[in-house]
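Predict structure. Chain length: 160.
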Amino acid sequence: MKSKPVKITLLIGVVAIWGLIAYQILAPASIEDDNLTFAMNRPVAQVSEEKREVVDLQKNYADPFFKKMAYQPPSNPIQPVTQKKRAKPVIAKPVKIWPPVVYNGTVKNHTTGNLYAFFEINGRKEALEEMEEFESIKVLKIWKDSVLLEFENQQRTIHK
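Prediction complete.
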């Protein structure tokens, strides 16, 4: 590909191919089709309701694979559809809204080995250890980066 004539030949080929692609895309938009305008000007045939024909399909032919009747007419007549009873609406239980809780971190007491978690609950700062309760919020588990809390039998994990 070091020779100049090969590069020029390839460039002419690429331009020709892209030209054909552009022509295929743009040419149909510019050509007016006389058959299309003729079909658009033709009146639509009106079909009256009286001329409709109802055809009942006969399904009494044999199955070509199993050599028996493919369709068996139902033995009992079709029963009318009855209204089903409506289910009683489900009344939603009121959901207790969690008070605003901010988890600030943990501290380990080296003498007892207990972890204390620091919270800000309803604007009040409090240090709680596991299984302690403050304003109906119970601390179930303390980890270094998160705590598991319980409020009105709902559990929630809060991260730093």
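Summary: The chain is about 20% helix and 25% strand.
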